[in-house]
Amino acid sequence: MHDHWLEAHGAKLGKLAVVTWGDWDCRTMLEGECRFKGIEKPHYFDHWINLRLPFSAAFGVGNVRFTLQDAIRKAGLQWEGRLHCGLDDALNTAHLLVELMRRGTLLKITASLAPTQSPPRPQPKAALPCVGPRSVVSTLPTQPQPQPQLPLPCAAATGMDTVPCCFCGVASKLGVVATPGQMQGHYFYGCGWWTPICSFFMWAT
Protein backbone atom coordinates (compact mmCIF):
# COMPACT_ATOMS: atom_id res chain seq x y z
CA MET A 1 0.00 0.00 0.00
CA HIS A 2 2.80 2.41 0.88
CA ASP A 3 4.66 1.58 -2.34
CA HIS A 4 1.52 2.36 -4.36
CA TRP A 5 1.17 5.68 -2.53
CA LEU A 6 4.77 6.57 -3.37
CA GLU A 7 4.29 5.68 -7.04
CA ALA A 8 1.06 7.71 -7.17
CA HIS A 9 2.99 10.76 -5.95
CA GLY A 10 5.78 10.34 -8.50
CA ALA A 11 8.43 8.87 -6.19
CA LYS A 12 10.61 6.15 -7.69
CA LEU A 13 11.59 3.48 -5.19
CA GLY A 14 15.23 3.63 -6.27
CA LYS A 15 15.49 7.41 -5.93
CA LEU A 16 14.04 8.39 -2.58
CA ALA A 17 15.26 8.87 0.96
CA VAL A 18 13.38 8.39 4.22
CA VAL A 19 13.70 11.39 6.55
CA THR A 20 13.31 11.07 10.32
CA TRP A 21 13.98 13.10 13.44
CA GLY A 22 16.46 10.77 15.15
CA ASP A 23 17.59 7.24 14.34
CA TRP A 24 15.34 5.23 16.66
CA ASP A 25 12.33 4.90 14.36
CA CYS A 26 14.12 3.19 11.46
CA ARG A 27 16.91 1.55 13.45
CA THR A 28 14.82 -0.10 16.17
CA MET A 29 11.09 0.54 16.29
CA LEU A 30 10.10 -0.19 12.68
CA GLU A 31 12.18 -3.37 12.62
CA GLY A 32 10.46 -4.77 15.72
CA GLU A 33 6.99 -3.62 14.70
CA CYS A 34 7.20 -5.30 11.28
CA ARG A 35 8.55 -8.48 12.87
CA PHE A 36 5.74 -8.46 15.45
CA LYS A 37 3.02 -8.02 12.79
CA GLY A 38 4.61 -10.41 10.28
CA ILE A 39 5.06 -7.65 7.68
CA GLU A 40 8.02 -7.54 5.31
CA LYS A 41 9.82 -4.22 5.79
CA PRO A 42 10.54 -2.39 2.51
CA HIS A 43 14.26 -2.15 1.80
CA TYR A 44 14.24 1.64 1.39
CA PHE A 45 13.74 1.96 5.17
CA ASP A 46 17.26 0.54 5.67
CA HIS A 47 18.79 3.94 4.82
CA TRP A 48 17.60 7.27 6.13
CA ILE A 49 18.40 10.92 6.81
CA ASN A 50 18.42 11.86 10.49
CA LEU A 51 17.28 15.48 10.15
CA ARG A 52 18.93 16.36 13.48
CA LEU A 53 22.33 16.37 11.77
CA PRO A 54 21.69 18.75 8.84
CA PHE A 55 19.60 20.94 11.17
CA SER A 56 22.52 21.21 13.62
CA ALA A 57 24.88 22.07 10.76
CA ALA A 58 22.52 24.66 9.27
CA PHE A 59 21.86 26.49 12.54
CA GLY A 60 25.27 25.97 14.14
CA VAL A 61 23.91 24.46 17.35
CA GLY A 62 26.74 21.92 17.67
CA ASN A 63 26.02 19.09 20.09
CA VAL A 64 23.09 20.86 21.78
CA ARG A 65 20.21 18.39 21.75
CA PHE A 66 17.03 19.87 20.30
CA THR A 67 13.57 18.33 20.32
CA LEU A 68 11.60 18.44 17.09
CA GLN A 69 9.41 21.18 18.55
CA ASP A 70 12.51 23.20 19.53
CA ALA A 71 13.89 22.82 16.01
CA ILE A 72 10.61 23.98 14.46
CA ARG A 73 10.67 27.07 16.67
CA LYS A 74 14.37 27.70 15.96
CA ALA A 75 13.69 27.59 12.21
CA GLY A 76 10.96 30.24 12.60
CA LEU A 77 8.14 27.80 11.80
CA GLN A 78 4.84 27.20 13.57
CA TRP A 79 4.13 23.81 15.13
CA GLU A 80 1.03 22.14 13.70
CA GLY A 81 -1.08 19.51 15.48
CA ARG A 82 -0.48 17.61 18.69
CA LEU A 83 2.86 16.69 20.26
CA HIS A 84 3.96 13.03 19.92
CA CYS A 85 1.20 12.27 17.40
CA GLY A 86 2.82 10.22 14.67
CA LEU A 87 1.09 11.95 11.75
CA ASP A 88 1.64 15.43 13.18
CA ASP A 89 5.30 14.67 13.94
CA ALA A 90 5.76 13.52 10.32
CA LEU A 91 4.05 16.67 9.00
CA ASN A 92 6.24 18.98 11.09
CA THR A 93 9.37 17.03 10.11
CA ALA A 94 8.42 17.56 6.46
CA HIS A 95 7.98 21.30 7.05
CA LEU A 96 11.41 21.50 8.66
CA LEU A 97 12.91 19.53 5.76
CA VAL A 98 11.44 21.96 3.23
CA GLU A 99 12.84 24.90 5.21
CA LEU A 100 16.33 23.37 5.28
CA MET A 101 16.16 22.72 1.53
CA ARG A 102 15.08 26.35 1.00
CA ARG A 103 18.20 27.44 2.89
CA GLY A 104 20.39 25.29 0.64
CA THR A 105 21.36 22.80 3.36
CA LEU A 106 23.22 19.73 2.10
CA LEU A 107 21.13 16.60 2.64
CA LYS A 108 22.54 13.08 2.43
CA ILE A 109 22.04 9.64 3.97
CA THR A 110 23.22 9.77 7.60
CA ALA A 111 22.59 6.21 8.82
CA SER A 112 21.84 2.74 7.52
CA LEU A 113 21.33 -0.80 8.72
CA ALA A 114 23.86 -3.52 8.01
CA PRO A 115 22.77 -5.58 4.98
CA THR A 116 21.10 -8.84 5.84
CA GLN A 117 23.23 -11.79 4.82
CA SER A 118 21.48 -14.51 2.87
CA PRO A 119 21.73 -18.02 4.36
CA PRO A 120 24.26 -20.27 2.60
CA ARG A 121 22.85 -22.45 -0.15
CA PRO A 122 22.71 -26.13 0.83
CA GLN A 123 25.35 -28.28 -0.81
CA PRO A 124 24.35 -31.64 -2.41
CA LYS A 125 25.21 -34.67 -0.32
CA ALA A 126 28.19 -36.63 -1.65
CA ALA A 127 27.74 -40.42 -1.85
CA LEU A 128 30.54 -42.81 -1.00
CA PRO A 129 31.52 -45.20 -3.83
CA CYS A 130 30.14 -48.74 -3.82
CA VAL A 131 32.64 -51.53 -3.14
CA GLY A 132 30.55 -54.51 -4.25
CA PRO A 133 27.04 -55.65 -5.07
CA ARG A 134 26.20 -56.02 -1.37
CA SER A 135 27.67 -52.70 -0.33
CA VAL A 136 25.38 -50.06 1.11
CA VAL A 137 25.62 -46.57 -0.31
CA SER A 138 25.98 -44.11 2.49
CA THR A 139 26.25 -40.34 2.55
CA LEU A 140 28.65 -38.05 4.27
CA PRO A 141 27.39 -36.74 7.61
CA THR A 142 25.86 -33.33 7.36
CA GLN A 143 27.23 -30.42 9.31
CA PRO A 144 25.24 -29.50 12.43
CA GLN A 145 22.95 -26.55 11.86
CA PRO A 146 23.78 -23.41 13.86
CA GLN A 147 21.37 -22.78 16.68
CA PRO A 148 19.58 -19.43 16.81
CA GLN A 149 21.26 -16.88 19.03
CA LEU A 150 19.18 -16.43 22.17
CA PRO A 151 19.44 -13.58 24.67
CA LEU A 152 21.21 -14.53 27.89
CA PRO A 153 20.21 -13.15 31.28
CA CYS A 154 22.65 -10.64 32.65
CA ALA A 155 22.69 -8.27 35.57
CA ALA A 156 21.48 -4.75 35.00
CA ALA A 157 23.56 -1.77 36.00
CA THR A 158 21.74 -1.52 39.33
CA GLY A 159 22.67 -5.07 40.24
CA MET A 160 19.14 -5.61 41.52
CA ASP A 161 17.24 -6.72 38.42
CA THR A 162 18.04 -9.23 35.72
CA VAL A 163 17.44 -8.23 32.10
CA PRO A 164 18.29 -10.04 28.86
CA CYS A 165 21.59 -9.33 27.15
CA CYS A 166 21.47 -8.12 23.59
CA PHE A 167 23.64 -9.71 20.90
CA CYS A 168 26.42 -7.25 21.79
CA GLY A 169 26.75 -9.00 25.18
CA VAL A 170 25.63 -6.01 27.21
CA ALA A 171 22.48 -5.47 29.26
CA SER A 172 19.62 -4.48 26.95
CA LYS A 173 17.72 -1.24 27.44
CA LEU A 174 14.04 -1.03 28.31
CA GLY A 175 11.93 1.19 26.07
CA VAL A 176 8.24 1.99 25.65
CA VAL A 177 6.23 2.47 22.46
CA ALA A 178 5.14 6.11 22.25
CA THR A 179 3.67 6.01 18.75
CA PRO A 180 -0.16 5.96 18.83
CA GLY A 181 -1.59 2.56 17.93
CA GLN A 182 -2.43 -0.80 19.43
CA MET A 183 1.13 -1.25 20.79
CA GLN A 184 1.34 2.17 22.44
CA GLY A 185 2.44 1.88 26.06
CA HIS A 186 3.96 -1.60 25.60
CA TYR A 187 7.49 -2.10 26.89
CA PHE A 188 10.31 -3.78 24.99
CA TYR A 189 14.03 -4.52 25.25
CA GLY A 190 16.47 -3.23 22.62
CA CYS A 191 20.22 -3.20 22.08
CA GLY A 192 22.04 -1.78 25.09
CA TRP A 193 24.19 0.34 22.77
CA TRP A 194 21.50 0.96 20.05
CA THR A 195 23.98 -0.15 17.41
CA PRO A 196 22.67 -0.73 13.85
CA ILE A 197 24.40 -4.11 13.55
CA CYS A 198 22.63 -5.52 16.63
CA SER A 199 19.10 -6.61 15.71
CA PHE A 200 18.11 -7.62 19.22
CA PHE A 201 14.45 -6.87 20.00
CA MET A 202 12.17 -8.54 22.57
CA TRP A 203 8.83 -7.51 23.99
CA ALA A 204 8.84 -7.17 27.77
CA THR A 205 6.30 -9.45 29.45
Q: Provide the CATH superfamily of the domain at 2-112.
A: Ribonuclease H-like superfamily/Ribonuclease H
Helix residue percentage = 25-40%
CATH topology of the domain at 2-112: Nucleotidyltransferase, domain 5
Secondary-structure-based class equals: alpha+beta
Molecular shape:
globular
Please report which band the strand proportion falls in: under 5%, 5-15%, 15-25%, 25-35%, 35-45% or over 45%: 5-15%
Mean pLDDT: 78
Strand order of the largest sheet: 1-2-3
Alpha-carbon distance between the two ends? 32 Å
Biggest pleated-sheet summary: 3 strands, mixed
Structural Rg:
24 Å
Instruction: Give the name of the CATH architecture of the domain at 2-112.
Output: 2-Layer Sandwich
CATH top-level class of the domain at 2-112: Alpha Beta
**Which consecutive residue ranges, at least 5 long each, have pLDDT under 50?**
130-142, 155-160
Total number of strands:
8
Written as H for each helix and E for each strand, in order along the chain, the element string is: HEHEHHHEEEEEE
**Total helical segments:** 5
Short key terms for the protein model shown above:
alpha+beta, 205 residues, 13% strand, 5 helices, single chain, 26% helix, Nucleotidyltransferase, domain 5, three-stranded mixed sheet, three-stranded antiparallel sheet, globular
Q: Can you describe what's shown?
A:
This is GRF-type domain-containing protein. Keywords: Exonuclease, Hydrolase, Metal-binding, Nuclease, Zinc, Zinc-finger. GO terms for molecular function: 3'-5'-RNA exonuclease activity; nucleic acid binding; zinc ion binding. By secondary structure, the protein is α+β, with helices and mostly antiparallel strands. Among the domains are: 2-112, Ribonuclease H-like superfamily/Ribonuclease H (Nucleotidyltransferase, domain 5, 2-Layer Sandwich), CATH 3.30.420.10; 172-203, no CATH class. The chain has 5 helices and 8 strands; from the N terminus they run H-E-H-E-H-H-H-E-E-E-E-E-E. It has helices at 2-8, 24-37, 52-59, 68-74, 86-102, and strands at 18-20, 47-50, 111-112, 153-155, 162-164, 173-176, 187-190, 201-203. Strands 1-2-3 form a 3-stranded mixed β-sheet. It has a 3-stranded antiparallel β-sheet with strand order 6-7-8, covered by helices on one side. The protein has a two-stranded antiparallel sheet with strand order 4-5.
